[in-house]
């Protein structure tokens, strides 16, 4: 079996925005699907991990796109494991039309957790570290890795939402892609008529759950560059906990 997984998808119309281009969040979701297909086929995917109280959780994701697939267009996502350590593994993505035309790339960092204790667990404990058999070091991913998202204390609270049923995934917390969708909703359609989202980075810090309130703090850090901090307010305790930080780069 090839170390690099290649999967074909279609940009379905209801996964595309007003311009006929695929929603950024849906593209992210298909990247995560490709990651699951790849890991499942090779024996360390969610289907197996759930039987031993283990799960993959996304720690960081960076997606950089020159253009997006359009409605009804078939596109290909290649994915491969770039490196693995005891508690984290890095996985890359390439999005193309399957014929040499590349739309963009993605980089991600994953941790494996114990679903009972919710604590990180040893990746090498799965099948005697078999993930090392699938590492690819000679395939380039020519975008920068996600870095630390720096924000000042002078940030504006721009939105508050409550976590609801449709935000929650199989791990019992807010789905990774839902954060992306909620952040992108901070700008309206008129903004997206004039701007292309070139790069999106997100670093996950803590989990959010049903009925938590998510506060969105926004700061412009450069021309067409914005950072967003999400903080959850636990309804029962009132505790304020940072959940994730994002950086967005737009072009016109």
Structure overview:
The chain is mostly beta strands and 252 residues long. The protein folds into two domains: 5-134, Hotdog Thioesterase (Thiol Ester Dehydrase, Chain A); 156-251, Hotdog Thioesterase (Thiol Ester Dehydrase, Chain A, Roll), CATH 3.10.129.10. Helices cover 15% and strands 39% of the residues. The protein contains four helices and ten strands. The protein has helices spanning 24-41, 46-49, 176-184, 189-194, and strands spanning 5-10, 54-65, 74-84, 88-96, 102-114, 156-162, 196-204, 213-222, 225-233, 240-251. Strands 1-3-4-5-2-7-10-9-8-6 form a ten-stranded antiparallel β-sheet. Strand 4 (88-96) and strand 5 (102-114) form a beta hairpin. Helix 1 (24-41) packs antiparallel against helix 3 (176-184). It starts with a strand and ends with a strand.
The CATH class of the largest domain turns out to be Alpha Beta
Structural class, from secondary structure content? mainly beta
Strand content: 35-45%
Named CATH topology of the largest domain: Thiol Ester Dehydrase, Chain A
CATH architecture of the largest domain: Roll
Q: Mean pLDDT across all residues, rounded?
A: 94
**What is the radius of gyration?**
18 Å
Give the topology string: H per helix, E per strand. Answer: EHHEEEEEHHEEEE
Oligomeric nature of the chains: single chain
Low-confidence stretches: none
Give me the CATH superfamily of the largest domain. Answer: Hotdog Thioesterase
Helix content: 10-25%
How far do the termini sit from each other?
Answer: 42 Å
Number of domains: 2
The number of E-state strands comes to 10
How many H/I helices? Answer: 4
Largest sheet: 10 strands, antiparallel
User: Spatial order of the strands in the main sheet?
Assistant: 1-3-4-5-2-7-10-9-8-6
Gross geometry: globular
């Amino acid at each position: 079996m090839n170390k690099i997984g290649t999967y074909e998808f279609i940009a379905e119309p209801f996964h595309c925005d007003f311009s006929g281009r695929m929603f950024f969040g849906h593209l992210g979701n298909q990247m995560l699907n490709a990651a699951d297909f790849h890991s499942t086929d090779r024996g360390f995917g969610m289907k197996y991990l759930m039987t031993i109280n283990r799960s993959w959780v996304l720690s960081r994701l960076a997606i950089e796109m020159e253009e997006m697939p359009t409605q009804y267009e078939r596109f290909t996502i290649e994915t491969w494991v770039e490196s693995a350590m005891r508690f984290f593994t890095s996985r890359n993505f390439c999005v193309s039309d399957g014929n040499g035309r590349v739309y963009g790339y993605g980089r991600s960092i994953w941790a494996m957790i114990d679903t009972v204790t919710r604590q990180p667990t040893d990746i090498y404990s799965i099948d005697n570290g078999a993930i090392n058999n699938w590492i690819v070091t000679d395939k380039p991913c020519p975008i920068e890795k996600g870095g630390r998202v720096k924000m000042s204390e002078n940030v504006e609270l721009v939105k508050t939402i409550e976590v609801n049923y449709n935000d929650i995934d199989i791990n019992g917390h807010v789905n990774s892609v839902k954060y992306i969708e909620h952040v992108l909703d901070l700008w309206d359609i008129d903004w997206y008529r004039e701007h292309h989202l070139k790069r999106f980075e997100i670093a996950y810090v803590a989990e959010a759950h049903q009925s938590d309130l998510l506060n969105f703090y926004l700061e412009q850090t450069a021309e067409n560059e914005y950072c967003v901090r999400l903080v959850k307010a636990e309804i029962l305790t009132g505790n304020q906990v940072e959940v994730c930080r994002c950086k967005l780069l737009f072009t016109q």
